[in-house]
Each structure stands twice: as structure tokens, then as C-alpha cells.
Amino acid sequence: MATTADMRNGLIIKLDGSLYSVVEFGQNKTARAAAKVWAKLKGVDNNRSIEHTWNSGDNIFPIRVEKRPYQYLYKDDTGFNLMDNNTFEQIVVGENLIEHPELYKDGQECFVIFNTETEMPMGVELPPSVNLLITYSAPGIKGDTATRAMKPATLETGAVIQVPLFVNEGELVKIDSKTGNYVERVKS
After folding, report:
1. 167-180 b/e (C-beta count within 10 Å ≥ 16 → b)
2. What is the pLDDT of residue 149?
3. 39 and 7 in contact (C-beta within 8 Å)?
4. In the chain, which residues have pLDDT < 70?
5. What is the pTM (predicted TM-score) of this model?
6. Alpha-carbon dihedral angle through residues 17, 20, 25, 29, given to the nearest 10 degrees
7. Bridging pattern class, strands 18-28 and 36-43
8. CATH superfamily of domain region 66-125
9. What 8-state DSSP symbol labels residue 69?
10. What is the homologous superfamily of the domain 129-185 according to CATH?
């Protein structure tokens, strides 16, 4: 059993029969009232985002999860097909469990988060950053570099992101997998 003192970002807890991931948390203390712990929670098994408040020291119910390395194989009508890197067992995961599905390419390394109580996948996430090739990008306009101007670029996965004007077609770029934004060019 855990208490609100054990709260941390990324912790998955059971609340009112649903699973939620802690996105942000904090503590409020006033002079006359007991301390309160608040948290912004994102639904793991639903698409809800909520805020919840507990009295300091209240019990919370964390769920033990395991992050296992998998490889993205392909997407079809049934969902995203992934292969365990250790046992070569394949699983199919729905797109609703995939974080930034537009950044996945064949052979991409990813991590599947499993609920250890039920052995069911709860989500799939990429490493902190991924390197992808730009397949199409209009040339930058000379002289338009005084401001932090951006232009659209199409990646090898089909995703369209905003990149600086100096980035050209055929270049490899690093993408932040949490936000889906351009980070930098990758030197080859």
C-alpha cells in the first residue's frame, strides 16, 4: 500500500476502477487546514484527463508496470504489429495505445508498457528521440533567416512536421518522440 508521499510523475494508479498516469502533481498547505496533494491524471485505459485531490497521507493504489523492448513491424487493419526482441513473439496493439503513431517506421525500436497483474499491454512509446529522413521539403527562401522561420517537411513515415528553413530534402533529422517536434539535423 502506498500513500500520497509516494506520488511521482509517470506513476500509474488505480482510481475509481480506472487506470491513470500521473502527469503532474503538487502539494497545497494552508495555515489552518491539513495539507492536500493534487495531481493531473491522464487515463491509461480511457481517454480522460482529470485532476484529483487527496488529503496528505491518504492511501493510493499504484499499479506495477513493466516496460519491455519491442520492434515495430507493420500496421494493418487489425492494428500495429510488434515483435518482442527477446522471444520473437508478436502482438497486435490498437492505435489508441500508440504514442505518436505517425513517427513509427518498419524496424523501429519501441517499448510496450505491460500491466503485470493482467499481462495486458497498456501503451507503446518510442525512445526519447527518433531519427527520420525528410522525403519532401520546399526549398527555403534566401534572406528569410532573420526570424525563426519554419517550413513544413514530410518525413519517411508520412508525417508532416515544421523544420527550420535551412533543413533540406534528403536530410536525416532528430525528432522528439514526446512532442513530435524537430530537434536538430543528424550528421551522417
Report:
1. beeebebebbbeee
2. 81
3. yes
4. 141-147, 188
5. 0.76
6. -10
7. antiparallel
8. Nucleic acid-binding proteins (2.40.50.140)
9. E
10. Nucleic acid-binding proteins (2.40.50.140)
